[in-house]
Structure formats: C-alpha cells, structure tokens
# Entry
Amino acid sequence: MSAALLARLREIVGDDRCLTREGELFAYECDGLTLSPKRPLAVVLPVSAEEVAAIVRACRALGASFVPRGAGTGLSGGAHATEGGILIECSRMNRILEIDAENRVAVVQPGVVNAELSAAVASLGLFYAPDPSSQQACTIGGNVAENSGGPHTLKYGTTTNHVLALEMVLPDGSVQRFGNRIGEGPGFDFVGAIVGSEGTLGIVTEATVRLTAIPQAVETLLVLFEDVVAACRAVGRIIRSGVVPAALEIVDRRTIEAVEASVYAAGLPTTAGAVLIVELDGLPVNLTGEIEAIRAACEAEHCQAIEIARDEAERKRFWRARKGAFGAMGRLAPDLYVHDAVVPRIHLPAILAKVCEICDRHRLKLANVFHAGDGNLHPNICFDRRDPDELARVMAAGKEILEACVAVGGVITGEHGVGVEKRDYMHLVFGAADLDPMMRLRDAFNPDGLCNPGKIIPTTRFCVESNPKARGYDAVPFE
Amino acid sequence: MTRIDDPIPAPPATTASDALACSPLAGRLFGEIHAATLDCVHCGLCLQSCPTYRATGRETSSPRGRIYLMRGHAEGRLDDPALLAEEAFLCLGCRACETACPSGVRYGEILEKTRAAVREAQPGGPLVRAIERFMLREVVPRRGRLGLLVGLLALAQRLGLMALAQRILPAPLAERARLLPRIPAAAERRRMPAFTPAIGPRRGRVALFEGCVMPEFFGRVNEAARLVLARAGWDVVVPERQGCCGALHAHAGDLERASELARHNVTVFDPMLAEGGIDAILVTSAGCSAALRELEHWIGSDGRALAGGVRDVLDFLAEVGAVDSVSGRAPALALAPIPRRVCYDDPCHLIHAQGIAAAPRRLLTAIPQLELVAHRNPEACCGAAGIYNLTHPEMAARVLAPKLDALEEATPEIVATANPGCAMQIAAGLAGRGSAARVAHPIELLEEASRGSTNGSGR
Ligand SMILES: Cc1cc2nc3c(=O)[nH]c(=O)nc-3n(C[C@H](O)[C@H](O)[C@H](O)COP(=O)(O)OP(=O)(O)OC[C@H]3O[C@@H](n4cnc5c(N)ncnc54)[C@H](O)[C@@H]3O)c2cc1C
Ligand code: SF4
Ligand code: SF4
# Structure
C-alpha cells in the first residue's frame, strides 16, 4: 500500500514537498508535546486546497490515515500521526489572501502565522485579537483547530469569536465552504462545530477572520504579591469590582526567575512571590478610574507594590516576557509538561494550593503562569523524560491535578485541546451519553475515521466500560 | 494504539558508551553536544525567525528540527547522517534562533560541533570539499596567498574576464563569480601603519584586529576605523603578526584549524592585554568579533583573555562617548552633516550573536542630517553567512529576497551594514535589481563625517 501511496503523493506535490527520509519522519514525530511520539509514513507540504484535496483522496483510496499540522506548537499531541499515517503540513500555505479594512475582515490560508497577521494589519489600526502565547509561531489553522485563546481572551474571547467562515477539505476529499463574511446566517453553525475540532473533521484550507480595532489607550500594571494565592484572591476582587480588564495574568516567582535569565528578560521583579499582570484598554477617559479600582482591589489583598508600564516599549517587553515564559522554563529541565485546566474563578486560590501540594508530594518542580482572569491554570512541570520514575510521577501528578479541578466543577482543558494527551481523561467530565453525540458529529464528517484518528474521543473500550454515572461534571475515577 | 505513557519506541542512549555502541557518530555527538540539545523544550518559538524554515516550511530545516535531529543522532535513535549533514550546512548559522529562544539554547555552539562531526558526510562531493578545504586552509589564512588570489581576481575584473566568465560558466558558477565584489585598487590593500597616535587629548590605546578578508576586500573599512579611533583620542596599534580569526573554518566544521588560528592570535594579543598596553581589541567585521568573543568554545580557558578583550568597533565607540557626552566628557567626535537616507541592516553576528543593535544606530543618528530610515526586515539573515552564498547560492538568494524587497520599499541612498560578507551579498543583490543604493560600513560614514574632528571637539 505504502509504495503506491507515496508514488501518488509525489505526483501530487512533487519530490521536494514530499518528505520520506528517515530523519525527516523523525523530526515530525511530535509537536509541542514530546511524549507519545509517532513517526508518520510521509510528510507532504501542499500549497493549495486542490493539492490538499488530492492528497486526501489518495489517502482514502488506499485506506491511509492523514493528519493536518500547522507549526507543531500544539501541547496535546493533536498533530501527532498517532496511527502512523500521512502528515499534511500546512506551513507552505501561508499567504494572506485579502485584507478588507472597511469590513474588518481578513481571508488567510491556514499556515499564516498568528502574529504575522496582526503585523500585516497594524498599519491599518487593526489586529487579530486571539493571542496565544505561542503567537509568534503558531498558525491560524492550528488556532482554529484548537480554538486557541490567549491572555486577552478575557475581554476579546477565543478563536471561535473571531472566525467567520472556513473553507475545508472534508475527509472524503471534497472542498466545502462554511459560514460567511457577515458572521450570521440561517441554518446550522458549522463554523462553530469546526472551530475546536482539532483537525478531526477535515483540513481547513482558508479562514475568514474578524479583525479588531487597536484600542485607543492601553495601560499595563504589574502588581506584586507575596504568593500566588494572594494574587488569585485579588483577581476575584477585580472581577467583582465590575472592571473588565483586557488581560489578567499571574506569573509566579520560579517563572519570573527563568524568564529574567532568558533573552525575554523585561525587568520583572524577582522579589515578589507572584506578579499579577493587569492590562486595561479602551478609551483614555475610562482608564484612570479603572486603574484606581484595580489599585483598591489589589491593596485589599495586601499587594506589595504596583508598577505601571512607562511606555509602549516597556509594555511590549512585559508581554514578550509573559509569552516567552513557557519556553524559559526549559532552562530548568530537558522536558516541560504544560498542563491546562479551567476552574470556576472562585476556586482558583484553593486549586493552586492543591496543585502545589500535589507536585510537592510527587517531588516535582512546578511553576505557574496562567490566564487567571479566565480561571485557566497552566501548572508547568519540569522533568526529564529519560527518567522513567520521574515520568511516572509527572503522569500521576497530572492526573491528580485534573481530578482536583474537575472535583470543583472545572474542565480538563482550557485551550490546549484534548488531542492524545487528554483523550483518556475525557471520562473525568463526560459519560458515554455525552460522548455519543460527539462521536456522531465526528462520524458525520469523518465516517472512516481516517482524518486525524486517535484524538479527542476515548477508545471504544473505555466508552463501553465507562461508568454511566460519569455524566456532566461529576468526578469519576477511571481505569 | 499509542498511549501517552507508552515507552518511547527506541530507548534513547543515556550514557556516552551506549551512544558509542550505536555508532561512532552517535558517540561523538553524545559527548560533545547532547547535554546542550536538552535545553530545547520543543516549544517552536524560534521557527519564524529561521530563514531556511521560512523558505521551505520544513521542520527539518528549522532550528527546532535541527536540534531534534542532532539529539536523535546523539541518542542513537536515528541513523540518517546524510540528512543531518545536509541540514547542518543548509543552516546559515545566523543564530536568529538564539535571539528567539526563551530556553537559552546555545545553538551556534552545537551547530559548529555538529558540523565538525558530520563534515565528511556533507553534500557537494569530495571535490567541492577538497577545494573548499584548500581555500580555507591554505589560502584564506595566509596573507600572501590570499593577496595573490585577490590580485589575480582584480586583474581578471579589470580585463573584463569576469563578464566573460559569467557568460561561459555553468549557471551556478557564474552566480558565484557575480557575487565577487569589485576588487579594490592595490593601494587600498596595503598594510596599515603599525602605530597611529591619538589626535588631540589621548583617551587610551586600542588594537585593531584586521581579519583576513577585510584587508583584501574592505581595506577602506579598517582604514576608516583607524582614522575615526585616532580622531576620537585613541592610539591605534595594528600588530603585524595577527592572523585570521578562524570563524570561516569553524563554520565549515574545521574546528581543528580554527583552534590553531585562535591559539596563534592568543600568542599575539595576550601579552599586550597582560601588560595593560591596550584597552581593547577592536574589530570591524561582525563575523570576526563574534568568533573571537567565543573563543572559549574552541580552545577553552586559553581563549578567555583574548575573548574578553575583543569588542566590536561600533559598540566600543558608542560606549566610550564618540558621539555622546559620557560622565561629563564632551563627545569625542565633531560630525559634519551627511544629508542622505540611510538604512541600517543588522548583521546576524552583531545582533544575534552579540546582542548589538542600538550602538550602530546611535552612531548613525548622531551624524547631522543623516536620515536613518527603518526598513521591515533588518534582523533577518541576508544569506551571505560566511561562504554560504558560494556553497548554497540558491537558498542564499531566496533568503536575501525579502530583505531586498524591504530595502526597495524603504528607498535608501545608502545601506549601512557592519560585516564584509553581508556588504557583498546586499550590494550584489541591490545591483541585481538595478538599485542605485550603495553599501557602506557605518564606520565609513562616521569617518566621512568626522574629517575635521579631533578628540573633544564634538561639543
Ligand atoms: C510556548 C507555547 C505557548 C502556548 N500558549 C498558548 C496559549 O496561550 N493559548 C492557547 O490556546 N494555546 C497555546 N499554546 C498551544 C498551541 O500553540 C496552540 O494550540 C496553537 O493553536 C497550535 O497551533 P499550531 O499551528 O502550532 O498547530 P499544530 O500544533 O500543528 O496543530 C494543532 C492541531 O491543529 C490541527 N490543525 C493544524 N492545522 C490544521 C488545519 N489547517 N486544519 C485543520 N486542523 C489543523 C492539528 O491536527 C492539531 O490537532 C502554546 C504552545 C506553546 C508551545
Ligand atoms: S542559525 Fe539561522 S538558519 Fe540556522 S537554524 Fe538558527 S535561525 Fe535557522
Ligand atoms: S525556541 Fe528554543 S526551546 Fe523552543 S524550540 Fe526553538 S530552540 Fe527549542
């Protein structure tokens, strides 16, 4: 099968965009999640929807699975060729096709890099609002698939709030368009279903996205606290005060130390136990009052100090530091497990205390940097995957963290997706009756299961055996 | 079905002897680079800064992919040395990835060591390798021979032979011939005076590092540095025995020869530094200063003193107050106007390898009426990368294209850059597009502006 398939793929994209050498496949064995690597059979780099469609048809004809990939910054293994099929790498489909400033819409190919879209429209006073910390590398296609968020999700929403229409190659090889430029339309909301489907419903070949006006005024505050828990309590107060900041991010001391040792150093204070980054934007007249409200909320939680970014350059430095934070943790150990879970905001202080306790008990190095305003925590565990004992402790701690979040009504992922990583934890939040409609939706698009198999939905065995009580958000142990 | 906690398929070698049991290459890489590759957490933040990734979209041609290949080989999990070699040499060594990497991966260092390890498997076949080796080992570092070669080229150029050569040579060779800069007249290639006294009140004494390519192709740049430094109040010594820095050799994977050259320079400069006879060793070529400042990668602590003494000439001038008042002292230089639109382009070996971006811009903006125009693409590699434009002309041209686009948009009259290879590459590119902009080293503009100046007259 494979020789015939490879020959066909070469016909479609040519030799130089069909990669099959041992080292090439090795380099594509994983994405931002280095656990559970799997070498694909081949990697193809199409440049058009027609090529993607032809690739998909070739795979289908020979029963091979295929997996779309953007920049491979995903953290849940969504772009792993879990069944060893064909990786469809979208990096070459990186053209911005249209910028319609009047209607604040851009049409892009899936491989366009998030930050480059914002850069391209900056001179028009616009930006693309979803801003994952990986935005300097990750692609719009990957963002759509993961429904990615970012620090500014608090005010501006996640990717789903910014995608108007999609062109997609369905798993049967046909090219379909969903949605429209206006964003409203009769009938089912297919775009809503596709955003966040992690590449299991088809391969996005074009996205029409909303652009947002750059706010007139922006202020960024750094508030220093004795520890993360105090910072979390302040977040609760800020939200209760009625102010809606553009971003509310918490960075703990271990993270700050790592960032300040890196090329992203921004002069963040290493003396505080935690820094709360508060960004306010909007009309200049409103900001003064909002700053006072923030000050009052933080002082009520005994913050140590409040600093305001002096100018745009300093503000940019703070954000570069915040966004380089994950990677900076790499200084502490060869591998990094970036967890992702959401809890109702009110539980943040208690959950963070619990997460620290879990990692201490498992003798793991933990750092926290997260979207506090959304209750979206990212415990980062530094480890070395070559040490089987440590790896086992990392996995055990990860599971306990998720269980603790679910126990207070949280969910197992906020923005990094389920992929292979969380697939078998879906039972923590969903029972068979919840998974069944998901499976039926997937099967309607992807009946043979050849498009990105092995992701999101647990394997059949688990479904059948899963506890019928595991409904909604009840915590149920599995395995 | 793979599960998250499945064991990794081929268990990675975790000790040097395990690695050696896989292959000699694995053993060598394990010993030399493995620990450093572990700094990469596979986050991908470096991807878009990499010119070869941007050109190809291939993971294997990205920093993250290359590091993964290196690590895979070191751990004996992968056996594809031909690909490793191709990628190690397709990499420009521009180190833009280091500037992007939050995890502090020392990419330049592991690249050099990997290149040395895979050298024999490198593409191009034995003949190209032999010629390259001969050029680098026997010609470049020996002044007499390089001078002879350059003299011949100059003659060929003057006789119009280059144009002929370009017509009759096969395309790739013609492309290479086209890249050669116009060879300066013999007068410009003469040795510099061993000692130039400071003009006006003396601020100190510095040594000028000439480099190997610089005096032949860009003698005027070193000459400009000598004059500016003297006008700014520095005695300038040019030690005669100094040699090539070895950067081109190291980048080509010849660490052995690079180390020999480094040791030679240590014997020349260390005594001067030890006696306190000089305050710094100044370099006009970014590639040379970057290499010299990292000598410890090649020769360990023996290189420490020299590495510590080396400074880029622009960085030094900005810091000591050539154009600004520093601790109450008037600017050292008085500058006459140069009413020109200038784009500054960052050489990789200044911005990415040494983190120097502000100093050259500061010096240029200090020149009255000089309009420093920003362009869209200053920090990306131009594709020159040592001898890369000779070994990989096609990729070099692809890497250069976005920069030429950006420069065309900014319409400068002068493009300023502080590295000889970049100057040649950008000049050839601009000429190819019919642009009239000329390329100059910032120090040349500073020299032109400071002709009437003596130390302290800049108030
Ligand atoms: C340092 C770092 C910081 C991060 N910060 C954030 C953050 O703040 N917020 C956040 O939400 N995420 C974050 N992430 C996770 C990741 O960057 C996002 O999930 C991102 O959207 C992935 O984009 P990508 O282009 O790298 O996609 P990939 O990793 O290549 O793929 C991700 C998924 O998308 C699918 N896919 C890719 N292209 C297509 C396509 N054309 N059509 C259909 N499916 C496709 C793949 O199959 C896969 O399932 C971070 C990751 C890192 C490494
Ligand atoms: S040195 Fe330059 S070309 Fe090489 S991997 Fe780094 S960014 Fe890419
Ligand atoms: S930015 Fe650094 S840590 Fe991240 S993938 Fe690139 S080299 Fe590795």
Q: What stands out?
A: Residues 388-407 of chain A form the longest helix (20 residues). Chain A has five domains: 3-89, 96-213, 217-327, 333-419, 430-471. Residues 430-471 of chain A form one domain.
